[in-house]
Amino acid sequence: MKYLDEFRDPNIVKKIVKDIKDTVTQPWVIMEICGGQTHSIIKNGIHQMLPEEITLVHGPGCPVCVTPLEMIDQAIAIAKTDGVIFTSFGDMLRVPGSHSDLLKAKSEGADVRMVYSPLEALKLAREHPDREVVFFAVGFETTAPGNAMAVYQAEKEGLTNFSELVSHVLVPPAMKALLDDPQNRVQAYLAAGHVCAVMGWEEYEPIVQTYNVPIVPTGFEPMDLMEGIRLAVGQLENGRADLENQYSRVVKRQGNTEAKKIINEVYQVCDRKWRGIGTIPLSGWRLNDEYQMYDAAKKFNVGSIETMESDVCISGIILQGLKKPPECPAFGKECTPEHPLGATMVSSEGACAAYYKYHR
Fold this sequence. Notes:
- The structure is a single chain.
- By secondary structure, the chain is an alpha/beta fold.
- It has a domain at 65-311: HypD, alpha/beta domain 2 (Rossmann fold), CATH 3.40.50.11740.
- It is 40% helix and 19% strand.
- The chain contains 17 helices and 10 strands.
- It has helices spanning 10-23, 35-43, 46-49, 63-66, 69-79, 102-107, 118-127, 144-157, 171-180, 193-199, 205-211, 222-238, 257-266, 296-299, 315-319, 343-346, 351-358, and strands at 28-34, 54-61, 84-88, 111-114, 132-139, 162-169, 188-192, 215-218, 267-274, 278-287.
- It has a 6-stranded mixed sheet, with helices on both faces.
- Helix 7 (118-127) runs parallel beside helix 8 (144-157).
- The longest helix is centred in the middle third of the chain and has 17 residues, at 222-238.
- It is globular.
């Protein structure tokens, strides 16, 4: 298919691999932030084509995986409330909470519906004025503009039976948190191309300068990823640390200014807990004060729910790039996509799911 096949040309990829092999002289650890990139790397065998000096580790860039356990439990509690239509993207429905998931809640009678857009949830609120419609607003910067627009539109229409359970997280604070960790292994980042398409790369420049770490916004096709790795290795070998944009056909420095405008209208930065990692300061969004009436956690009084993580699942360590999925003793045994212990196995972007599907 035109505009896709050209980025999957094996001959071009082999040439880039040769360039990397000719360049590398010592071991380097590079982290791809995005779960979508992880799946592409494992599916296409990119990690196996690289010279042994290059180690790829998988970051916390899967929004489903990092949604905290108590947020899942809050969602289930709201979904089981009489008169509620609970809506969500499909990948959140099987993420395990403490004792259940949203699909099980649906099987027990809760009105849980999968939607492809928050605007579908808004349409349900118009069609069912006697019901409370809640949308599970999960994701990184990529899904935030659409989720923000739903709240903005609800306010303009005066819809009072619509709300969002917000669990948005931000990439740059997580990157800094990993670099600040005494166990950090990361020496360069492949930044998530779709996040940068929304936000641009300006907010990554201070990270490059402060931590002296190369950052390369990178696409998702095999050629994109291999070229991103080549650029990162070139910088590391030359002792440079720059922001180098591999995904130039999509990503601009300023990002999408209109998308950022609606985000800033509806949301404001807050501290956010990440599943398996803990609270990272200023790493999420919550609704602005003027939109608090659309905050489902407050409307349904579920904000006090707290939980404990499984002591068997090591997804938090995997999300920090400290271990890989096969190193978990439960991987492929007690933990499978059919019976997941953690979100990294159930999510379509989770590292454990990628290894289970493509690399067992």
